[in-house]
Amino acid sequence: MQHRIILCLLLLLLMVGTVSADTLIYKIAASADDGYVAEITDSSWQTMRNAAGDSVRTDAGTTYDPIRLLATTTSNEYNENRRGVFLFNTSTIPDDAIIGSSDFAVCGAGGKATALGSPDIVLVGFSYIAGTAISEELYNNFNTNRLATDIPIGSWSTSNWNNWTLNTEGKNYINKTGATPLMLMNSWDYSNSSTGITWSSANKTAILWRDRSTSITTNIPTLTVVYSLPDTTPPASITNLANSTATCEQITWNWTNPTDVDFNGTQYSLTGFAGTTNLTNSSTFLLAGGLTGGTPYTFSTRTFDITGNMNATYVNDTATPSSCAGAPVASFTTNKNFLRIPNPISVTDTSTPTPTSWNWSWGDGTANSTTQNATHTYTKRGKFNIILSVADFNGGSNTSAPASVKVVGYENY
Q1: Domain boundary among 272, 292, 319
Q2: Residue 296 pLDDT greater than 90, yes or no
Q3: What is the overall mean pLDDT for the chain?
Q4: Is residue 264 part of a domain?
Q5: pTM of the entire predicted model
Q6: 10 Å Cβ neighbour count for 312?
Q7: Are residues 280 and 358 in the same domain?
């Protein structure tokens, strides 16, 4: 428990301490708005429990017993029932904070009385109008949801911290824009049942804790709120993106995932395919099949994390698959095989399936042409062989059979 006292001292000095990159602890000490509300009247338990409240204490002191059930000298009558109340100004918690492990604690003091029985101590909230003082009317305004697991009075420490770790209901109850009002009561009081109470004349069941005071500043009632701010930082991009096209009409992309602990996957798109697809954080490759040989495809990726933050930077790679149809076969047609100077000849490529480069040899010693369909003008007479050589992007090539053309001058001889 010593480490808790040290932590309290540090937090009272610093108010806010960094736990991790985006987690803070707010230590909010009780102000003058703590004390107890009570019903003081000689009556049965049920009447006492369900009354409107007629007593309040908010003054500072060293120790006092804010939870107490006191019996009278008349059989099965009670004189007083107390409920401890606290107001914490939690408006300094950011509105977008995500409340994590948090707790409420009071430091026990002196002894404890169990002459009437041994109830649990229950933590609840209560209805409160901002800006108003604690008053006796709050006695019957408590909420019906437990904000933490009860502490048995038998386990109550009379000299150290008694701690309630907030459950989900408790964490959701914390008010980020104003006061968080809390109330402690015994379990008979909470459940509206006298089962467990053993009446004994002028005796009581009660617990004491340390209140605020100028001489004791380290063990006043305390609400510790741990929260994290929403993560707005996306994970790093994938790295080492590369491709393999060893199989026709398929491309395999491989990459290395980022090491961010909250990395949750990779979103990708592929040229020619609509929309995007998400891959899990364990995926390090994609095999894209059914592609068109000779067509370039761009694989475009960006990463995202478990909270949906998406990396704005795209990592891309472009590759072209080979065709499953094999190497090209060169062929062509000519618009004539006899012509006079200076009339041109036209050739049309009919090669299959999908060559990507063409080389025309005209047979007259002039430069070759490299367009898919070409024209040529001969400047001398004679018979010439036209030959087409083709190749595809994958390195396959083929040469056509020659086509003969006769070129004459102005007279046919």
Answers
A1: 319
A2: yes
A3: 87
A4: yes
A5: 0.60
A6: 8
A7: no
